[in-house]
Amino acid sequence: MSDLTTTWRGRAAAILIVLTVINFLNYIDQMLLSSVLEQIKLEFTLSDTEGGLLGSLFVITYTIAAPLGYLGDRFKRKNIIAGGVALWSVATLAAAFARSYEELLVCRALLGIGEAAYATTAPSIIADLYGPDERSRKLALFYVATPVGSALGFILGGLIGEHFGWRAVFLVGGLPGLLFAALAARIHEPERGRLDPASARPAGTFFTALGRIVRTPAWRINTVGLAMMTFTVGGLSLWMPTYLERVHGMSTASAGPVFGAVTVLAGLCGTLLGGSLGDRLQARSAGGYFWLSGAGLVLSAPLIVLLTRMDDLVALFVVAFFAELLLFLNTGPLNAALVGCVPAWLRGTAFAVNIFCIHAFGDALSRTLIGYVSDRAKAAYLAGQVPTESAVRAAESAGLNLAIATTAIPVLLGGLVLLWGARRIARAPDGLMTHPG
User: Fold this and answer.
1) 325: closest CA among 265, 404, 414, 280?
2) Membrane spanning segments where (predicted)?
């Protein structure tokens, strides 16, 4: 290996580390709300539906802002990343000083805009750092931040919130991002498409690029599967700590950290295993990425229902571990499939539109819908009863339990779509997995 190659590999590793640490902060800041949602609801006297809207509004603005990824195909990506990280960090800090529910909603909205700028742009840089034969593994490392960062958000939010209150959670969470925004602005940005076959980049508008993307079958299959998974994972990420507190009587200091620890372990195992297996299966079959991801989603669905039937906490967390492991198998494979099915000059836009779709039809709906189903089930449970304190508590527990169980349906549907897509792609790989440059 030449000195030049060694130097570039070292530089690529440094860039990957910076982007991955930022991705950890991304998911930590997203999930801080989950651990202290009950505290916020009590302070502002909110219903479950209103509490769910705090999670959904973040996703709604994240979704609306996702087309910022198109700018990543036109301008310096590191500048877009730095600006996005700075914005979401300031929004997190501002949440600590919110004086009303409405001000907190504004902070959550700004958080979504900042994180969208980052999430749609960073993967395209990683795709230019590493060749197709190792992208799934490298993207799996990058997306380890999804389970581990989320878990750290649960853990930090629970511990800090229990001892210092929910405002301190956002204060601590927002500070590190400002440092990494400055680091992001100084990274060396690789040339677009440097490790891919040359492809012409025709002139055109966003809508021209959009048309090319949606005509790619693998992109469409990927997006539908991810949207269904995101519906469930996004909803559970907001509501599971509350579920453990309300249904199983855990404290804020234990619910978030324990669930976070399970998520760390399951997410690490699932994401890294999925990245390795995904590359191997894809080398054997053009539909390998989708076979693995689809099987993981289908097998996770019954486990999600099963965990809502568990009275014993140890058994519940064992089931949750395997459910999450199966869900996170798809992280590396589906993102590698996404960067591989479009020309290099379209990757930012492909991620932008993909993120728009998976959140618009995924967790932008699920977080509030889970709260709504919980409220409606609670009302149905109390119908005809005297609303004593014990009856209300039982109704709240039963309502949220039912709402959590229903999240198994979308992942089952998403898994079936991916398995169907894997068969279709395997039969005609040249026409489906990639789109001509």
Assistant:
1) 265
2) 12-33, 53-72, 79-97, 109-127, 139-160, 166-185, 221-239, 259-277, 289-307, 313-332, 344-362, 402-422
- Which tokens belong to 163? 């001892």
Q: How far is CA 65 from CA 5, 60, 61, 69, 120, in A?
A: 37, 9, 6, 9, 10
Task: Compute the C-alpha angle 226/228/230, nearest 5°.
Answer: 65
pTM, whole model, 2 decimals?
0.70
Going residue by residue through the chain (437 aa), what tens digit of pLDDT does each one get?
Answer: 454 455 667 788 888 888 989 998 988 888 888 888 888 988 998 888 888 888 788 878 888 887 766 676 677 888 888 999 999 999 999 999 999 999 999 999 999 888 888 887 888 888 788 877 777 678 778 877 777 787 788 788 888 988 898 999 999 988 999 999 998 888 888 877 666 655 545 545 667 777 888 888 888 899 999 999 889 988 887 788 888 988 888 887 787 778 878 887 888 888 888 878 887 888 787 788 899 999 999 999 999 999 999 989 999 999 999 999 999 888 778 877 887 777 767 777 787 788 888 888 887 778 788 888 988 888 888 887 777 888 888 888 888 999 999 999 999 999 999 999 888 887 765 544 454 44
Q: Are 363 and 234 in contact (CB under 8 A)?
A: yes
